[in-house]
């Protein structure tokens, strides 16, 4: 005979009585298989309902009453009963009683009323344990599905709720059930909570159970109705507002609850909610994925939170500070503690962490969900927020938004999101541009920003394009470069091949190379061969290309030979790794291995290198005179294509040097692409250019010509040049010198020519590519 409630309260120690009661109940369940489980189950439920009828103390917390213990006993009985069932899959009398008398709905009402205090916590725990431990499928029953929906309405909406731990446990169980049976997702997301007036007209089970609802909701076993009167009396005593659900369909859904929990200040709660949401969007069922997109606030809610976090980031952030938080993970969204603090650091870390989470969602989600989420990010974040900021007249707005977009691109990985980002930045048009085209697209405006009056904006935008060029999407390089090089219109038609190196360069016809200049003593550091050698495919031999770039800068303008660790060897080894990485990235695109043959009868057509290359060539032609503004060294020490130690050691904050580095960095990225037209146009010094055309090598030749005229006016030029190189490498303290912009430009020019020679060498080595390349001594191949 179980202890009665009245006997318990007569005990001197209430806690001792509960322990005795629990012990005796367990003994009876274990030792008396013939025990009346249904009677015990009803007795416990009756004890809960009688508490509300008899109790007058409204301040006693629920955990100090016998309600938690009675709920635990009811759960144990349900689990024990299921284990004793002879036929698997059949509901026992106690489970049938739970369903028939809508006990879960009543508990949900009690949890909403929060009477006694803490009751919602007890109800959430009971729901979670029942759904997790009872193996019989329950969520298809209307008497389970409806209270689950009501309970979801109560949670996830108020940040900092005292029941967040229980709420996330509840949603974890639901997501686990959905993973086991993806069809459940449709029922849970599309479930509508109706008022009591409509309840009588509803079927008593969801569609999947409609055929057997009569058997399941009204079982054959005649369960005693000893708690029915108590339940009816209980519902009449509760406040009226707790008996009706609030909100329309779609409010308080599983998605809303999960996203609300993702915003929790408790890191463990937020992380578990994010894992649950990630599990939910990765369901394999196409019908469930379609339902998730069309019948839930999943994508809009996720992106709305992303946009809210973006708006919370201060507009005055320094791009250098943004760069320090690269690599933030959604699993560890807080900023690294070892980094210097700055205003807006936490807001920036929160945004980058949530974007990384969105990135993972798109990666792991069903393709239907991934495409919808990527489009939502593009529409709400890229188009509605970022684009107006990038086109704003405020320089600070342009600078910060460009740096943030660069950080976004660096974290972006899934193909669906990359496709939307590329369409946003470059637009759908891949036709070759004309010089007179006005900037109509965002890409045109961004290219214009690379030549902005503000050097900070120029460098930030160049970094954006450098990051974009490292993404595995063919439209990027095709829109920026290849569409203008198709058909090789930069090559002169019908003209004989040049007989010598000098014929190719046409120095006498170049306005930079006047008679006075040639008489000034300029001589190439090494005389090039009389005629370029070619391979069987028509390409200039790599030895000729390497020699041309290494010999381009005259000896009096070279300083690297006086210092260690700045030689050609370092460039070749680093270039090899980067070229292999680039080649792997573009391998699926099916690029040709050889140049497109020229039709000698095809008339020449005007050639325009495109706005992107035009900007880079114009910038390169001003490498000796770039006007420098206050540039932050932490941001603008670029992750250069060859990781040049000279570049990594920059410590000055007022140098055109930074701008020159970034221009050469982008050009080096372009030169790495293994497309024959790119290689020919950027790396072949012997190309026979059509009239009015220029190539990268011809631009460099003109810069050298300008340099040789300038150095005649700089006293003690070799000594000052060597001092500037040592300053840039951090070997000597920095001090302001006359002609410092010119001297720094010469250093960058020398290193850039060595980079290009190294890239050409690893792209087409004389004996095939190999890991341990041994380049020749500098200045000669």
From TrEMBL:
- Report the family membership: Belongs to the FHIP family.
Q: Where is the composition biased (Basic and acidic residues)?
A: 211-225
InterPro entries for this protein:
ARM-type_fold, FHIP, FHIP_C, FHIP_KELAA_motif
One of its Pfam families is DUF5917
Q: Which domain of life is it from?
A: Eukaryota
Q: What gene is this protein a product of?
A: FHIP2B
Name of this protein = FHF complex subunit HOOK-interacting protein 2B isoform X1
**Which residues does the UniProt record annotate as the domain FHF complex subunit HOOK-interacting protein C-terminal?**
653-730
Region Disordered, residue ranges: 199-231
Q: Which PANTHER family match?
A: FHF COMPLEX SUBUNIT HOOK-INTERACTING PROTEIN 2B (PTHR21705:SF9), RAI16 PROTEIN-RELATED (PTHR21705)
């Amino acid at each position: 005979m179980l202890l009665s409630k009245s006997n318990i309260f007569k005990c001197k120690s209430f806690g001792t009585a509960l322990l005795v009661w629990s012990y005796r109940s367990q003994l009876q369940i274990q030792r008396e298989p013939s025990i009346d489980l249904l009677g015990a189950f009803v007795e416990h439920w009756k004890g809960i309902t009688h508490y509300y009828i008899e109790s007058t103390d409204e301040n006693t917390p629920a955990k100090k009453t016998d309600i938690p213990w009675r709920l635990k006993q009811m759960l144990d009985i349900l689990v024990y009963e299921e284990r004793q069932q002879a036929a698997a899959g059949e509901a026992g009398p106690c489970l049938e009683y739970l369903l028939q008398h809508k006990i879960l709905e009543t508990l949900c009402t009690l949890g909403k009323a929060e009477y006694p205090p803490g009751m919602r916590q007890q109800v959430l725990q009971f729901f979670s344990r029942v759904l997790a431990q009872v193996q019989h499928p329950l969520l298809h029953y209307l008497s389970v599905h409806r209270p689950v929906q009501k309970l979801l309405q109560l949670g996830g909406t108020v940040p900092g709720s005292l029941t967040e731990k229980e709420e996330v446990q509840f949603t974890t169980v639901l997501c686990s059930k959905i993973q086991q049976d993806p069809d459940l997702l449709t029922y849970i997301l599309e479930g509508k909570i109706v008022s009591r007036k409509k309840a009588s007209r509803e079927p008593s089970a969801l569609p999947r159970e409609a055929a057997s609802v009569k058997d399941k909701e009204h079982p054959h076993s005649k369960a005693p109705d000893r708690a029915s009167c108590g339940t009816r009396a209980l519902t009449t005593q509760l406040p009226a507002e707790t008996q009706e659900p609030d909100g329309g369909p779609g409010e308080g859904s599983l998605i809303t609850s999960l996203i609300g929990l993702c915003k929790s200040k408790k890191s463990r709660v937020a992380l578990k909610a994010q894992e649950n949401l990630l599990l939910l969007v990765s369901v394999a069922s196409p019908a469930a994925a379609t339902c998730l997109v069309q019948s839930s606030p999943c994508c809009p809610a996720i992106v709305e939170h992303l946009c809210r976090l973006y708006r919370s980031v201060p507009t005055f952030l320094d791009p250098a500070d943004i760069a320090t938080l690269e690599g933030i993970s959604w699993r560890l969204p807080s900023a690294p503690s070892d980094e210097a603090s700055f205003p807006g650091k936490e807001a920036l870390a929160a945004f980058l962490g949530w974007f990384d989470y969105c990135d993972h969602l798109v990666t792991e989600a069903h393709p239907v969900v991934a495409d919808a989420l990527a489009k939502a990010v593009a529409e709400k974040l890229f188009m509605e927020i970022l684009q107006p900021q990038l086109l704003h007249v405020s320089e600070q707005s342009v600078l910060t938004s460009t740096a943030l977009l660069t950080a976004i691109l660096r974290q972006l990985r899934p193909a669906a999101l990359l496709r939307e980002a590329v369409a946003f930045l470059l637009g759908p048009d891949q036709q070759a541009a004309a010089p007179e085209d006005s900037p109509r697209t965002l890409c045109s405006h961004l290219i214009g920003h690379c030549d902005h009056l503000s050097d900070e904006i120029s460098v930030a935008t160049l970094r954006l394009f450098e990051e974009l060029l490292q993404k595995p999407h063919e439209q990027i390089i095709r829109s920026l470069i290849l569409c203008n090089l198709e058909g090789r219109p930069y090559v002169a038609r019908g003209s004989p091949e040049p007989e010598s190196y000098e014929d190719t360069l046409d120095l006498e016809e170049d306005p930079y190379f006047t008679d006075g200049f040639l008489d000034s003593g300029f001589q190439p550091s090494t005389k090039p061969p009389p005629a370029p050698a070619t391979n069987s495919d028509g390409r200039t031999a790599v030895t000729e290309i390497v020699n041309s770039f290494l010999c381009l800068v005259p000896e009096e303008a070279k300083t690297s030979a006086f210092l260690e660790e700045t030689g050609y060897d370092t460039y070749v080894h680093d270039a090899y790794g980067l070229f292999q990485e680039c080649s792997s990235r573009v391998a699926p695109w099916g690029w040709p291995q050889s140049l497109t043959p020229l039709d000698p009868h095809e008339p020449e057509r005007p050639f325009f290198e495109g706005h992107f290359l035009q900007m880079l060539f114009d910038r390169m032609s001003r490498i000796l005179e770039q006007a420098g503004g206050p540039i932050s060294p932490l941001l603008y020490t670029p992750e250069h294509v060859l990781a040049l130690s000279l570049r990594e050691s920059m410590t000055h904050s007022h140098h055109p040097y930074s701008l020159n580095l970034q221009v050469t960095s982008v050009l080096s990225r372009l030169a790495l692409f293994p497309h024959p037209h790119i290689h020919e146009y950027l790396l072949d010094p012997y190309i026979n250019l059509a009239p009015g055309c220029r190539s990268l090598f011809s631009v460099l030749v003109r810069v050298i010509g300008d340099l040789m005229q300038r150095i005649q006016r700089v006293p003690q030029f070799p000594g000052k040049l060597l001092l500037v190189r040592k300053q840039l490498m951090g070997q000597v303290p920095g001090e302001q010198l006359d002609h410092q912009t010119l001297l720094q430009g010469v250093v960058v020019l020398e290193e850039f020519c060595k980079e290009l020679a190294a890239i050409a060498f690893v792209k087409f080595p004389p004996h095939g590519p190999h890991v341990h390349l041994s380049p020749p001594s500098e200045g000669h191949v």
